Amino acid sequence: MRYGGFTSCIALAHDGDEVPTLVLDAGTGIRHVSDLTGDNAFNGTILLTHLHWDHVHGLPFFTAGDREDARVSLWLPEQPGGANATEVLARGMSPPHFPIGPEGLRGDWSFSSMSPGRLRVEGFTVEAAEIPHKGGRTFGYRVSDGRSALAYLPDHCPTKFGPGADGWGEYHSAALELATGADVLVHDAQLRSDELASEACFGHAAAEYAVSLGQRAGARTVVLFHHRPDRTDDELDQLAEQFGSVSGPAVIVAAEGSVLKL
Ligand SMILES: [Zn+2]
Ligand SMILES: [Zn+2]
Q: What value does the mean pLDDT of the chain take?
């Protein structure tokens, strides 16, 4: 009720701009992005971390992007076997699963695949790195405007690389490089450490890992993100309290509609 229940979507705007031009993931939260463009169409780029439903299902409900005067470049991780981006998206979004396919979205849309590495989009520099998750190639992103940097790892299963120093998962180089010195680290916190043993098989991280990664990487703020669907508001308040006085980064529990100014 208070933290919200829409799925992963982050919108970035340059300093002084109210209107975002870069969107990370297209979960149901992308509906809110249309509220930010006023009467105008969206003109920008969407980067998907991976293709799980909770990161893609908002796409056909992105009203600011689904109109004749919109211009949208969508990028997703290159798939093993080389299937093209439109075809991969259409596997989850086309009849009989949904009334239209990706090409049915109105406006000037392009669908492309990307490899790990650097991409320059909408005046931002993006570093993409492959990170462990479950069932499908998954990227984490680091986005910089040359002044501030945001690291985004919404779905991350570091225990895939071993237990690490504290049992919460390995602090591997891809995660550390994305998060190093970031002003904001938005990180998977679906689990608590006491749930890891029974639920790590779902491919997610514990909140304790997210905070510890932020500390190790020297991030200024850690945003605990991608809450477990049945987590209550009170439980999320407890999580905020648990990390309210850790040394190092400020820790924020993500809530729908939160705005951060960097
Ligand atoms: Zn996922
Ligand atoms: Zn997810």
A: 96
